[in-house]
User: Fold this.
Amino acid sequence: MRAEALAPSSSKPALRGPGSDHFTAQHSAALKAALAAQPEIRPEVVARGQALAADPSYPSPEVMRGIAAQILRAPDLSEDAS
Assistant:
């Protein structure tokens, strides 16, 4: 989902403390309308993906090292399964 699909409303909601999230049917309807307005397939995103897949230098070694480091730091959730 694109960030611009959920443009902020003109009125700012009042700030509330932790645990004060709320849900209304009005918010649900607005979200559904914003999602329905988005195309299911975005050709520009598909074209970018195809270009990146064809680029032998993507992702860069720095990005790969960063991803590898995150994987190594992540807990092994299979060890928790009993």
